[in-house]
Amino acid sequence: MRKLNSQFISTFVSEAGLDGQNGTYYGFVEMDQYYCMAVAEGYDGDGGGESAKLAVDAAIEAFVQKPGITAGKIRTCLKKAHQCLKEHSVRIRLKAGILLLVSDYTRFRYGVCGNVMLYGFRNAGIFHQSVTHTVYQTMADRKQIIGEETGPKEETRNLYHYLGGSGRILVSGKIRLEEGDILLAATEGFWNRINRVEILDAYESIQSVEEFLGDLQELYLRGSTENIPCCCLAAVEIKKAYQENTALKKKIWIWCLIILLILAVGGTALFFYIRGKRRRQREIRNTIAVYEDTGDQYMTNLNSLLAKQEYEKASEESKKLDKNEERLERERLISEKIHITTMIENAGKFYDSRNYTQARDEYKRALEIVEKYEELFPLIHSIEQKQKLVSAGMEIDSFMESAALKEAGGDMENAGILYKRAEAMLRIVDDPERLKEVQLALLRVKEQADQEIKEERAKTRDEVIIDADKTAALSAILAGDFETALEQYTKIRDSYIAMEENEKAEETTQIILSLQKQAREIEELASETIDGDESEALSALAAGDLETALMMYEKVQKAYAEMGNEAGAQEIAVLIESLQEQIDSAPEMEELEPSQESGPEQDTQPEPGQERPVIPSGEKLPAAPGQDERQILLDQAVERLLNEMLHAIARQDFASAMNACQEIENLSAEYGDSKTVGTEQIIEGLKKLMEEANGGPGGN
To answer: Looking at per-residue confidence, does 694 or 262 come out higher?
Structure first.
């Protein structure tokens, strides 16, 4: 609307310096409500073009985003440009001076930072000229510069403030525009070389703004061409300014006054309303504070139930407060305190039910929240005391569990120690019910310990008896009495079984089996020895060596006695007695031999069914006068029969051996030879050997 009812003509001229680098930049934007123009000059080492462009673009972009003619808007736009240069200062620090002009098509306002200058032309004169942040401007303000020289001025590039540096901004007030006004923005390269008088001369004869800028450009380039800096001239000709409706404005002012009056009355009423409301809000806050303080006191004493009731009352009162951050904060605080009371209450229930792990966790979480609030600091000590009780309860549980395991394992001594520790802690914790339980456990453990002592004593006594039995068994083994040793070890094994010493009973059983095996081996060896001795005794009998046979039978009798074979020993005793009688009667037989030789000739005919032994010469024995020769032949016959008998025994032909022995007996009976006495015992022995060889009586 404003743009359509106004006419702004923008024109600019930009000149590069002799070095060919143009460090200036110009930009403008026309909007429906506002007009914005910016002129900048850069001061960095590359000519300043980049710095100037960044500054102008950033300022205009910030204005387009939030347009306005207020001083704050202009400052914001220039600060954006200043920040942009700082962000892009990577290799070198970017610096620039800038002038930002803003208009609402009726008035204008500008902001400057650096040495860009603004001229306002009206009615053949300059009605406004901006100031710069230069040392030259300071000297001019102090009247140190009288008039203006026609040549370049000093200290115009010596700046106090600029974008990328200190960034201080100067914003003008609002200035009204009229039709025909020209606003000219010039960089330092122009106004340093062209003075105010020359500019006014060029303005007096202008026909258009383009012609005005052309004349100024000629003035800039006239004279010496050495050290010509770059410059930028930007002009805005106001062909038509927006005319505001003053009548409407008066109506607006009247309505504003009426509204202000209404607002004043309403404000007064609102004041009293707000005042009363604040008083009520203050009373509510005081009530909430009283409830909170009471709840905090209950919490200090760990009376969570009453504290929770007080906090709930405070929560209900807080709902009467206005909905704002204060109310939300109070509700959050009260809610946390209610949560603390719930946790403490739950922890107490867990503690009473002996769920110490859950109680510990609840107290720990409650303590973490309590530490955030200074008013609840006294509660910290109470919670810590409860935590100690929980730890004591957990330790008591540990003692009880360990004691129960020890008791189940039979270690009554350590179980009693653990139960006593638990009892001592329970006296501190003051838990009568559990203390009674521990005391009953102590009585039970004591009774079991006493019983174990009795059993241990009985076991010790049994072990003493077992040791005595072991000593007796070893003595029996050393004496060769395996039967007695086996009896002792059997007794020891039975004792171990009664004592439930299964491993030792098994070891004793192995010893018994070993002894039985040794006894069998010894018995077999003794049987073999007896058989050998009996065979040797038979051989001695067959040879007529009664003394050797007697000695061997005595040895056999002793072996039978050691083996406990009384029947065998008795049988051998009969043989020994018979042999002893034969040995004792042998001298008497020798004394009777001469009388027998001188007496009548004995009947030497064999009995019916028997054959007389054949004499090697084939003749009968001579009569008594040839007694020596007959004895020789008899001895030869007996020796031949003995050899046959021994060979038959060697072949285990016991029948032939008995026949040969019978022949010897017949010769002995016929010729009265005392050396051949005892054949009956030999025959009996051969019969036994024959029975053993045939598998016992009646065998094959």
So the answer is: 262
